[in-house]
TrEMBL record:
One of its GO terms (molecular function) is citrate synthase activity. Pfam families: Citrate_synt. CDD domains: EcCS_like. This is Citrate synthase. Keywords: Transferase, Tricarboxylic acid cycle. One of its GO terms (biological process) is tricarboxylic acid cycle. It catalyses: oxaloacetate + acetyl-CoA + H2O = citrate + CoA + H(+). One of its GO terms (cellular component) is cytoplasm.
Amino acid sequence: TGFTALDYGFVNTASTMSDITYIDGDQGILRYRGYPIEQLVKGNASFLEIAWLLIYGELPTADQLGEFDDKIRHHTLLHEDLKNFFTAMPAGAHPMAVLSSAVAALSTYYENDSDPDNPEHVDLTNIRLLAKLPVIAAYAHKKSIGQAFLYPDNKLSYVENFLRLNFGNMAEPYEIDPVMAKALERLLILHEDHEQNASTSTVRLVGSTGADQFASIAAGIQALAGPLHGGANEAVLNMLAQIRDSGQGVKRFVEKVKNKEDGVKLMGFGHRVYKNYDPRAKLVKESADEVLAALGVHDPLLDLAKELEEIALEDDYFKERRLYPNVDFYTGVIYKAMGFPTRVFTVLFAIGRLPGWLAHWREQNLDPRNKIGRPQQLYTGSPAREYRGA
Ligand code: CMC
């Protein structure tokens, strides 16, 4: 019955209406609930303030934000048993796999109060996930470098706590570097939402079945890990290091990309929606110089990235296809300067994106038009044939 349109990659098909994020890909515009990303990042917004904005639709009052922040600080502890989970994973496990598995495992502790049909449970699960994801992420990092886990310190802000959990140790007090904290807060804010990207669509699809936020977010994390999506920030740094180590030079690498040799792509370039400079990439590029200077780091990989961008933007291959740097192109250089290992980069993206995922899950959950997601197919297989038995 009816007409089924074929649309590989959902290039032309909207899966939902949404009030959360607006993107104009031709003009390079990104707004959260109507607020331009530039104002949010350059203003003194906090990550949790924007999380509230995304989830509930308006900026929080001081009281609302205070209460939200306080609740999140008081839900940071993981059940002690969950810590065993990290030791059960191989030392070399990718932190994204650990993160997603631990979020799925988290659901086993809260089965009785994570009912998707109960609004109080939905709010509580939002708090739990916002509170615990950074702790899980830091433990995945600590585990990968063989260091002891620290307990969260509820006196610290969201981002400060996260930095201490990653870089502090048992032996001495950890001093927060305000430059690093501010820079990380800004980076996380500009990752908070990006409408119907692959991971958010995954969260919505899983949520459309009536699954709770734990299940939906665990799936979203897995989708984000792919190199064409959030995993690109890790891939960019590996690509830059490879160009440096091969000694082949940037021009030769660009030729390889253009000739599609060995399927090589310029990671951190191109976007399904932006056919102009990604507004997030513009902000990240600006802060890369500032942050590296403030941290006293000179990284030749940043020079290499700039050279690569300059050559690509002048080249007809990239011009014709309207390929520009995306958010992942410069973030890795900053994360590296902060001291995060390359394999942790996409975990930082996941922490940033969590409020967006939760906002979309909730928007869909409250919408009476929500139906289980069930794409169609056009069957191209064998016509009916007979099985005659073994
Ligand atoms: N390097 C070289 N060529 C590229 C690139 C690239 N990074 N991106 C697209 N192209 C080419 C592609 O080969 C195709 O050329 P042709 O018409 O000759 O076959 C043309 O440009 C159109 O590309 P597409 O693959 O049809 O575009 P898409 O919208 O399906 O894919 C993308 C978007 C982001 C997956 C792709 O641009 C890409 O693979 N980029 C590299 C990975 C990356 O940086 N991902 C992060 C995306 S932003 C943050 C996030 O979502 O997490």
